[in-house]
Amino acid sequence: MTNPPLWTAAEAAEATSGTATTDWIANGVSIDTRTIEKGDLFVALKDVRDGHDFVAAALEKGAAAALVSHVPKGVADDAPLLVVPDVLKALEALGRKGRARTRARVVAVTGSVGKTSTKEMLAAMLGDQGRTHASVASYNNHWGVPLTLARMPQDTEYAVIEIGMNHPGEIAPLARMARPHVAMITTVAAAHLEAFDDITGIAVEKASIIDGLEYGGSAILNNDVETAAILQAKALDAKRKDVGFGWHGFDYVLKDVQLHSDTTVVQAEVDGSPLVFKIATAGQHFAMNGLGALAACAELGADLALAAQSLGRWTPFKGRGARETIFLDPVERDLTLELIDDSYNANPTSMAAALDVLAAAEVTHDTGRVRRGRRIAVLGDMMELGSDAKKLHAGLADLDAMEKVDRVHCIGPLMRTLYDTLPEHQRGRWCETSEEMAKVLRSRLDAGDVVLAKGSLSMKLALVVDAIRKMGHPVENA
C-alpha cells in the first residue's frame, strides 16, 4: 500500500489560509536547500538570510513547491508556490494541522541539560514499538518545533518533540502547539542565566511546558533539582499527573549507578519493584535521563521492559558524548586513543557530567611515546552565564572528577580563569580560539590517552574534534 502524501496543495492551502498557484504534492518539508530532497515543500523562512533568495535553487533541486510570502525574483509566475502573508506563521499553522490530524501519542522534552540525548533515547525506545517521528538534530525553537510537527506523517504512532528556550516566554507557546500527552523536564540548571534573574526563573520557564499537556497527561519531573518544588507545584496547579524520577524520585527511584569505561549499569525501583538497565556509554547523567525517559515511555503506554532493552542499545550522537577510537598507526592496531566528542554545547552541569565520564574512562599504559595513558580534557568557554561566568568557570577546578584528569587544555577568555586556577601539573595549553588549539593539540596527544572535547557551540570545539580525528588512519577489517 502506497503511503499518502505528506501534504497536498489543497491541504496545505487550507491549513495556512494561503493560495496555491498550482496543484502539487509534497512528501517532506525543508528549510535548507543544502539538504533538500526531491518532493519536499521548501519553506522560505527569514532568518540570518532570506529564504526567498533560495526558492529558485530549491525548485531546481526538485522541490515540490515553495512556501513564500511573494513570488521571488527569478521564479516563474506559474511555479508551484504556496503564497501566504507570513511564512513563519504559515509554518506554525502547518505544524498545528500536522499535530491535529494524527492520533500519535506525543512526548515533549525540555530541560537545561540533556534534551537532545533524551529525545534520541525516547526515539530509539519508542521506535522499536511503533511508527515514531522525532525532532532532528536540535530543532527545538520557534521554527524547529512547527517544522517537526509539519513533517509528521499522519500514521505516526509515537512522536518525540524537543522544546528549548533562550528567553522567558518561549516554551509555553511551543508546548501548546505540540499538545503532548507526556512532558518531561530533564533538569533545571545554570544555563541562559543572562536572560533570567536566577535559577528560579529558569525553573518557572521550564515548568511552563506543562501548559501544553493534554487533559489527563503526565509530567515527568526530576525530583533531584533544587527547584523541584516549583515543577511539582506547576503540575498540581494544572491538575496534571506528576511522575517523579531521580535519587529522590517518588515513582522512579535511582538506587545505584555504576560507571564503567563504556557502560553504565543502573539499578532503580519503579513503584517499589526493581528495574535494572544498562546504557552502552558511561555517564551518571545518562542514567538519570534514561530513567526519566523510561518513565515517559510507560506513561505513553509503551512496554517498559522492551523500552529498557532498547535503551541498552542506544549510544550518544556526534557532539553529544559520542565515543570513538582513533587509530594512530595503519599497522599497529594497539596504537590508539579514545575521543569523547561532547563538543556541541556546555554549561556547568553538563560540563561536570562530562568530566565524570572522563574520570571513569580507562586509559591504556605502556604504549606510545609517553608510555602512560592520560585523561585529557579540552574545554571551551561556557556561554550565557551572566555575571557569575568567571566564578562558574573557575569552580570547575573544585570538582571531584578533576582529581582524575591528568591534563586540561583551555580555550577562550572565560576558560582562562579555570586555567589560572588549576594546579601547575594539570595545566596544558591555553588558547584564545579553537583554531589555535587545533593547530597545537595533536603533538600533545599520544596512544593510550582518552580525550574529552567540550564547550559551547560558538567556541567551535568541532574544529578540535576534527583535528583529533585527522590523526587517525583507516584500518581494514582482517
Automatic annotation (TrEMBL):
<dbReference type="InterPro" id="IPR005863">
    <property type="entry name" value="UDP-N-AcMur_synth"/>
</dbReference>
<feature type="domain" description="Mur ligase N-terminal catalytic">
    <location>
        <begin position="27"/>
        <end position="94"/>
    </location>
</feature>
<keyword id="KW-0573">Peptidoglycan synthesis</keyword>
<dbReference type="InterPro" id="IPR004101">
    <property type="entry name" value="Mur_ligase_C"/>
</dbReference>
<keyword id="KW-0131">Cell cycle</keyword>
<dbReference type="GO" id="GO:0051301">
    <property type="term" value="P:cell division"/>
</dbReference>
<keyword id="KW-0132">Cell division</keyword>
<dbReference type="Pfam" id="PF01225">
    <property type="entry name" value="Mur_ligase"/>
</dbReference>
<dbReference type="GO" id="GO:0005737">
    <property type="term" value="C:cytoplasm"/>
</dbReference>
<dbReference type="GO" id="GO:0071555">
    <property type="term" value="P:cell wall organization"/>
</dbReference>
<dbReference type="GO" id="GO:0008766">
    <property type="term" value="F:UDP-N-acetylmuramoylalanyl-D-glutamyl-2,6-diaminopimelate-D-alanyl-D-alanine ligase activity"/>
</dbReference>
<dbReference type="GO" id="GO:0005524">
    <property type="term" value="F:ATP binding"/>
</dbReference>
<dbReference type="Pfam" id="PF02875">
    <property type="entry name" value="Mur_ligase_C"/>
</dbReference>
<keyword id="KW-0133">Cell shape</keyword>
<comment type="similarity">
    <text>Belongs to the MurCDEF family. MurF subfamily.</text>
</comment>
<keyword id="KW-0547">Nucleotide-binding</keyword>
<protein>
    <recommendedName>
        <fullName>UDP-N-acetylmuramoyl-tripeptide--D-alanyl-D-alanine ligase</fullName>
        <ecNumber>6.3.2.10</ecNumber>
    </recommendedName>
</protein>
<dbReference type="GO" id="GO:0009252">
    <property type="term" value="P:peptidoglycan biosynthetic process"/>
</dbReference>
<dbReference type="InterPro" id="IPR036565">
    <property type="entry name" value="Mur-like_cat_sf"/>
</dbReference>
<dbReference type="InterPro" id="IPR035911">
    <property type="entry name" value="MurE/MurF_N"/>
</dbReference>
<comment type="function">
    <text>Involved in cell wall formation. Catalyzes the final step in the synthesis of UDP-N-acetylmuramoyl-pentapeptide, the precursor of murein.</text>
</comment>
<dbReference type="GO" id="GO:0047480">
    <property type="term" value="F:UDP-N-acetylmuramoyl-tripeptide-D-alanyl-D-alanine ligase activity"/>
</dbReference>
<keyword id="KW-0961">Cell wall biogenesis/degradation</keyword>
<dbReference type="GO" id="GO:0008360">
    <property type="term" value="P:regulation of cell shape"/>
</dbReference>
<dbReference type="InterPro" id="IPR013221">
    <property type="entry name" value="Mur_ligase_cen"/>
</dbReference>
<keyword id="KW-0963">Cytoplasm</keyword>
<comment type="pathway">
    <text>Cell wall biogenesis; peptidoglycan biosynthesis.</text>
</comment>
<keyword id="KW-0436">Ligase</keyword>
<dbReference type="InterPro" id="IPR000713">
    <property type="entry name" value="Mur_ligase_N"/>
</dbReference>
<feature type="domain" description="Mur ligase central">
    <location>
        <begin position="109"/>
        <end position="297"/>
    </location>
</feature>
<dbReference type="InterPro" id="IPR036615">
    <property type="entry name" value="Mur_ligase_C_dom_sf"/>
</dbReference>
<keyword id="KW-0067">ATP-binding</keyword>
<dbReference type="InterPro" id="IPR051046">
    <property type="entry name" value="MurCDEF_CellWall_CoF430Synth"/>
</dbReference>
<dbReference type="Pfam" id="PF08245">
    <property type="entry name" value="Mur_ligase_M"/>
</dbReference>
<feature type="domain" description="Mur ligase C-terminal">
    <location>
        <begin position="337"/>
        <end position="456"/>
    </location>
</feature>
<feature type="binding site">
    <location>
        <begin position="111"/>
        <end position="117"/>
    </location>
    <ligand>
        <name>ATP</name>
    </ligand>
</feature>
